[in-house]
Amino acid sequence: MPFTPLHIGPPLILGYILRRRMHLPTLIVASLAVDMEPITVIILGIPGYPMHGYLHTLPISIPLGFILGVVMYIVDRVFEEPFRHLSLSEHSGYGVEGYISAGVSGWILHILLDSPLYDDIKPLYPLEVNPFYNPRIASIILHICLLLLFVGSLLYLREIHRILSIEVGGEAAWMCIGLITILLGAVILIVAFTDLIYIPLSAVVTIWGLSTFYTRLRGFDRIRRRRIILSEVSVLTAILTFYSSLFVASYRSPSIEEPLRFIGNPIVFISSWTALLVGVILLRPTLRYIGVKAGDRTFPILTDVLISGFALTPILVGIFIVLPTLVFMLSRIPSVVARIRIE
User: How does residue 342 score in pLDDT terms, banded at 50, 70 and 90?
Assistant: First the structure.
């Protein structure tokens, strides 16, 4: 599939249905890990190696899915609490088999979704043909995956609100939902480059997530309320500038070239990036205060790493700092908030 985020929807739905039998994070990771192959080929420019090679074959999916399942079983011993807080796993009767079955199933699911789309995939290797190749249904598969992403996200948000409301209270639950929704908006933006009609949807989801996050954040630090409001205004200004300009660019041209050219526009990019960076810097005292008050030494460090990541975004490396840091902060918020009270 041209954009890996589209592979989140199917395993999210499948994992939600079978969450008492399979480890949901392993299922999602396995479904996404397969695309490390084409990404590696693109970055390293490996000559003679197809975009979809051995990792996109069913015989290989079984041993690699097995290995991934065992690795995730070990990793889960460390991240069990964050996974539980984020409703990514729950106490069930399965053992390592729940991780292995998730690893193999996620890997196979990815291959089956990609096989109708690409003629270079050989799912039944060593057979040199792809009997599932059918480009006429590519659009159908893409839209089904996107629909499943939306439905799965709604189910997930409902579940995380239920779990966190019980464990740490409604304010923390909505704070986490706001951050998750912001990340979902970023995923939709990536997907939008398969169909530009999803750009407004990405904007609405992102803005709602930001508003929800900031509304709850103000309750945790009323002393810096004005500073938080200024941060919200700055970030929303950056987001609105970015999306309005992107929407205009997509309206001028129904093809992907014009929006891509817009993203490379230095004036729009720098103005949006500057406003966003200012907004994040304004949040630094509040985020560090929350971490210190909760006695969490990691949270203030993550705050500074997040700001550094945003500062490095113009040279792209910042993106690979911001996204994992946001996810890690998200996993820490429930335990941090559980230790403090709203003043």
Answer: very low
